[in-house]
Design goal:
158 residues; alpha+beta; 59% helix
């Protein structure tokens, strides 16, 4: 199930990027760099999902990293970052003018901005990514335990 989620999130992200590419009027080096970064993130998500189907432990390691990238979003001092491959349900804490918060729901999306004129200060957490990280951690523990039991069983039969 997790492998399919990773692959589907990556495919949706690639489709979103392709749609955005067709809406861009002119390309420059910075635009191409950001498109390349976005494409690599979504390709990595697909890679993670495929790895889970081929080698569960290795795929879980990569998927854990992929989810950590999606765990936190921020916008501080003119630098903004949010990456979602799949679904994000979270809370954004806004510190721009006092304190406020927003509940957010996002489908595969990437936001990377560098603009020193933007004064927005936001930090957010993606609870779906957090849940998946906890799930992966539990699955990896189960796999380690099964491996140890198998090793002990094989050792006992020698």
């Amino acid at each position: 199930m997790l492998g399919a989620y990773q692959i589907l999130g990556g495919i949706i992200g690639l489709i979103v990027i392709c749609i955005l590419i067709f809406k861009i009027d002119s390309f420059n080096l910075t635009t191409l760099l950001f498109i390349g970064i976005a494409l690599s993130f979504y390709c990595y998500s697909i890679f993670c999902g495929a790895l889970i189907f081929r080698n569960e432990d290795r795929g879980l390691k990569h998927s854990m990293f992929n989810q950590f990238i999606q765990l936190i979003c921020f916008s501080v001092w003119g630098v903004s970052f949010q990456y979602v491959s799949g679904i994000a349900l979270g809370i954004d804490l806004v510190f721009t003018n006092g304190f406020d918060y927003h509940i957010s729901f996002v489908l595969s999306n990437i936001r990377v901005f560098i603009d020193p004129d933007i004064g927005t200060r936001i930090v957010g957490i993606n609870f779906i990514a957090l849940f998946i990280i906890l799930f992966i951690n539990r699955q990896r523990r189960i796999l380690r335990q099964q491996f140890q039991e198998k090793q002990l069983s094989e050792f006992g039969h020698q």
